[in-house]
Amino acid sequence: MPIPGHVDPVPVPRAITPREDGRVDLVGLSREQIRAELATAGLDEKQAKLRAKQLFHWLYHRGETDFEKMTDLAKPMRGWLAERFIVGRPDVVEAQISSDGTRKWLLRSDDGQDYEMVFIPDADRGTLCVSSQVGCTLNCRFCHTGTMRLVRNLTPGEIVGQVMLARDALGEWPKGSMAGFGDADEAEDDDAPQYTTDGRLLTNIVMMGMGEPLYNFENVRDALKVVMDGDGLALSKRRITLSTSGVVPMMARAGQEIGVNLAVSLHAVNKEVRDEIVPLNRKFGLEELLQACADYPGANNARRITFEYVMLKDKNDSDEDARELVRLMRHYRLPAKINLIPFNPWPGAPYECSTPERIKRFSNIVFEAGISAPVRTPRGRDIMAACGQLKSASEKKSRAELDRLAAEKQAALG
Ligand code: SF4
Predict the structure, then answer these.
(1) Poorest-confidence range of 97-111, 182-196, 235-249?
(2) What pTM did the predictor assign?
């Protein structure tokens, strides 16, 4: 039976346009891919392997973008690299900081595609919400990104580039001596304080920005492998969460090949309501989805699956819904945490947020059944931090205004 709406992915997303200057951007490449690029450019195998190791460290551990500053490479080598490669970052179209500390960026790729990332600081952690696609095919009705069409998948470089840019903006690349961290330029940094990895602001990543990560599986997997590599950005898989709307056939692969924490956009407990809110449910139903969660590799009580549940007035927020949610979690024996999200409306949104009393009552019912059900505090409402809102707002601005803002923000970030 055909499924109404765009619930299927665009199977062959448009390829990325190559850079006009012909240079290759190294960001997003693994050590092995950097080695292969160097070999293709003319280095012999031994050189390519050695230089790839050094470049990997400079790129992802030090955050260096200028080959000239890579001091353990011979000067002629630095020039040779700069002629053929770049270490890029996404362009910043807009950067906003909320009164609660939430930061949001509208980014632009080399081929002019806009996508968003959000940084949410908390007392004990800082979470970067990363996008996986420009737009989305899935049309979840509560989601503003769902009102946009899919333009293309983001490349591993554009996904890793978000993490790199956030580290730039937060000033989180190591500055001190790297002695003991495998760096060869100790002499230059002799007087600098000893580098430590403690006290970072960016501690966690959620693949929860624009797009459905499991419809861009290979790129997301390759990007996260770079992000998790201990010689580079070195974020532990326990600090990374991949959020899916329920692309059931890819969930086991995600567990096996990426191994990060799983979050599921559940949002409803029966077919009728979930079909409406998350149209992908018409393709992969609730039972199938919850069974895939129960089978997710590595999920246990110490590593629970997060179920996102947006609170929509008179739609999915009754006592009966809360009880059914508990029943489903028990039935499938899911090591679950339920995240209750007050709906963040946008102009023209088809729903309203549940009342605070209703949300509290819903949360209590789930809590009393022994399942954690915290209510997520809305963040960054003054800067439209809900997914997709900044991109839409910016599209209403004139090109000249955007260019001016981009220049200003870039200067502010620099
Ligand atoms: S919630 Fe996620 S999957 Fe659904 S439309 Fe929005 S971006 Fe796409």
Answers:
(1) 182-196
(2) 0.86
Q: Give the domains, in start order, of the chain with CATH numbers.
A: 24-86 (1.10.150.530), 91-413 (3.20.20.70)
For residue 137, the ligand 1 atom closest to its alpha carbon is 8
Mutate to test the pocket of ligand 1, among 116, 136, 220 (most ligand atoms within 8 A of CB): 136
Q: Which of 392, 309, 333, 406 is nearest to 107 (CA)?
A: 406
Take residue 220 and report the two structure tokens written for it: 């997301």
220 lines ligand 1 (CB under 6 A): no
Pocket test for ligand 1, best of 130, 150, 265 (most atoms within 8 A of CB): 265
Q: For 262-277, give one letter per residue: b (16+ CB within 10 A) or e.
A: bbbbbbbbeeebbbbb
Distance 140 CA to ligand 1 centre (A): 5
Model pLDDT, residue 301:
83
Strands (E), 249-370: 261-265, 305-311, 336-342
- Strand 24-25 and strand 85-86: pairing? parallel
- Say yes or no to pLDDT of 137 above 50: yes
Among all residues, which ones are annotated catalytic? 116, 387
Read off the tokens for 89.
């970052």
pLDDT confidence tier of residue 23, bands split at 50, 70 and 90? very high
